[in-house]
Amino acid sequence: MTSAKYPSIKAGTDSLKLNTGATVPILGLGTWRSPDEQVTKAVEVALKAGIRHLDCAFAYDNEVAVGKGIKNSNIPRDQLFVTTKIWGTFHRRVEEGIDISLQRLGLDYVDLLLIHWPVALRQKGDEKIPLREDGSRDLDDERTLNETWKEMEALVAKGKARAIGVSNVSKPFMEDLLKTAKIVPASNQIEAHPFLPEHDLVLYLQSKGITPAAYSPLGSGAAPVLEDETILKIAKAKGAEPAQVAIAWQAQRGVLVIPKSVTEHRIISNAKLISLTDQEMQEINELHKQPGKHIRTCMPPWGVDFKFDNYPPPGQKV
Ligand SMILES: NC(=O)c1ccc[n+]([C@@H]2O[C@H](COP(=O)([O-])OP(=O)(O)OC[C@H]3O[C@@H](n4cnc5c(N)ncnc54)[C@H](OP(=O)(O)O)[C@@H]3O)[C@@H](O)[C@H]2O)c1
């Protein structure tokens, strides 16, 4: 399925099989920073446009509005693939975390439940990012990812999550998790786009049967990937939108891709999967080697060398 250097699957593939046997549509709708008053409509538009995969999270504070969009669509539950995530302050109470999300979304189960951050945060009331007195994030150092994973595994047996996975997990963290996991994670959701292709991590995950999912596939907020000359050139040659090029590149790498939009015409055009030639794939694979084109857009900057307990660096705000 993969070439030696870069991940690649058959062009035109629009769904993948998880290691549970479940089918997941490659393209999903992201919902981070989608305000309540817009996300219900965005979900309705996406579902009408044929998207059947939604990426949600407790931490996005909009699951009730997402749930409304699902309900308004009248699409049978078994035709949808819904992902949500357990927030850092819930690592010691994973079941409570999923119960809140299920209630907010108006669902009995999710298709995929991820651990949002691979580190636990100490619970302090309802604070989302509890801080220590020195302004750094208040890590729950005694809680390991492996322990939290064990609680995730129990939720599969209870039927609350059909599949479980992780997010923001680098290769060393994954290797450590696999030493004790009874259930191999179905997916690892990571920041990935042409400016941060994560080729090695993607190949590693695929070799373990873990489906990679790309978040911030357009480069997040200002969508900087869409202004890149190579992406623009390929889009122009194909008569496609730049976002369609960035999305198709992920799909043809065998990577789930969850662009966020609350803009009707963008949601509709993002939903149309185009095909790229091998040469176009290759150009995008190599694009990040250009000067100034290797960029991580989401914070904290998860990666092999990242030390969460020193974040943010002294003198910087979270
Ligand atoms: N697991 C994690 O830690 C994590 C972290 C970050 C993100 N995520 C997930 O991944 C999803 C996607 O990532 P993201 O929200 O960071 O960023 P993204 O999808 O890379 O980019 C979103 C931005 O691109 C714009 N956009 C969307 N389609 C466009 C198009 N066709 N043309 C031009 N602009 C377009 C959106 O604007 P409008 O909305 O105004 O149209 C928005 O400003 C999130 O929503 C979330 O579900 C997960």
Automatic annotation (TrEMBL):
Superkingdom per UniProt: Eukaryota
Domain NADP-dependent oxidoreductase: residue ranges: 27-287
Keyword Cell inner membrane: no
Residues that hold substrate according to the record: H116
Official protein name in the record: Putative GCY1-galactose-induced protein of aldo/keto reductase family
UniProt-annotated site: Lowers pKa of active site Tyr, residues: K85
PROSITE patterns xrefs: ALDOKETO_REDUCTASE_3 (PS00063)
Family to which the UniProt record says this protein belongs: Belongs to the aldo/keto reductase family.
InterPro entries associated with the record: AKR, Aldo/ket_reductase_CS, NAD(P)_OxRdtase_dom_sf, NADP_OxRdtase_dom
Keyword annotations of the record: NADP, Oxidoreductase
GO molecular function terms noted in the UniProt entry: oxidoreductase activity, acting on the CH-OH group of donors, NAD or NADP as acceptor
Active-site residues (renumbered): Y60 (proton donor)
